[in-house]
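Hey Z.,

So I finally got round to the uracil thing we talked about over coffee. Here's the setup:
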Amino acid sequence: MDSALDWHTARALLEWQVELGATEAILDAPVNRFDLPKAEPAAVTPKTKDGRPVAPPPPVDRAEPDAVEIARHAAQQCGSLEALQAALAAYEHCALKQGAKSLVFCDGHPGAKLMIIGEAPGRDEDREGKPFVGRAGQLLDRMLGAIGMDRRSDDPAKAVYITNVMPWRPPQNRDPEPKEIAMMLPFLQRHVALVKPDVLILMGNTSCQAGLGQRGILKLRGHWAEAFGRPAMPMTHPAYLLRQPLAKREAWADLLAIRARLNGA
Ligand code: URA
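And the result:
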């Protein structure tokens, strides 16, 4: 059923009502509690032929499944981007999926030499199912245009491929948690291995956390690093540049370094 509320908001409202003392959920039809079925007869302990009680079954192992291991196993099986998208759609261990409308997988051309890894979808991306389509995405398109790149192009010299660390929108656009990033890491590694870009851009702290295992984008930016076995340039996120326009000067220097690397300099 489609609801005006997202999953996280609906859950928060329900928890609030329980805190206020609500103990009953009113049903569409009334229930006569005096007319409930009679109690089940007491269970009879099963006996062996010679009258001894049958040993109870061994306890069920209720340990939490290892979400990262399951992700690693699922990602390893994927021989194509379509298979990887399907594996993500089938992955049930990340709570962000519950609250998201879309699985935001990628945009652009899979044969591109340049691959951008952003953070996570926001509201616009969740609605449209594509990465970087909101205000930050529009700025990103202008930045790419300034070095002759275009996510709509299928000319390998101009083409760009875009994805995010997280394919599901975090509630209220909060930062993804370390355990959520860890679950997505095997999928991201496989994603990069399938696209095989010449150059990666790590957009912002979450992307640097995933690719380099460290945060601190203002120190990392502008310095070539290696992520997933590829040359990677950490850059400040376009959402940051919208708030801090003076930082665009440094972002421009980073874009020129990327252009030169793509040109083989
Ligand atoms: N910010 C991101 O990091 N990714 C998006 O897709 C949108 C905004």
